[in-house]
Design brief:
- It is found in: Nucleus.
- Keywords: Nucleus, Repressor, Transcription, Transcription regulation.
- This is Transcription repressor.
- Pfam families: Ovate.
- It is a single chain.
- By secondary structure, the protein is mainly alpha-helical.
- It has one domain.
- The protein is about 65% helix and about 0% strand.
- Helix 1 packs across helix 3.
């Protein structure tokens, strides 16, 4: 998992929004630390979300991840 971060159990009626906001927060935190986002970091981010969440949430995680990637382009 990411240094200085922790998982929080949340049940949401809007899982996409929760995942998207959380991922953006993680990316902003990373940028604040060293001003770079690389493929390795993004892969680790995605895999951590997939690992920590139930399979039924994966579609929301993947959509949120792709939208974050689109913003970073």
């Amino acid at each position: 998992m990411f240094l200085g971060s922790f998982a929080v159990c949340v049940y949401s009626s809007k899982p996409y929004d929760e995942f998207y906001s959380s991922m953006v927060e993680m990316v902003i935190s990373k940028l604040d630390q060293d001003l770079t986002i690389d493929l390795e970091y993004m892969e680790e981010l995605l895999l951590s979300y997939l690992k920590l969440n139930e399979k039924k949430a994966h579609k929301h995680i993947l959509k949120a991840f792709l939208d974050v990637i689109e913003v970073l382009k």
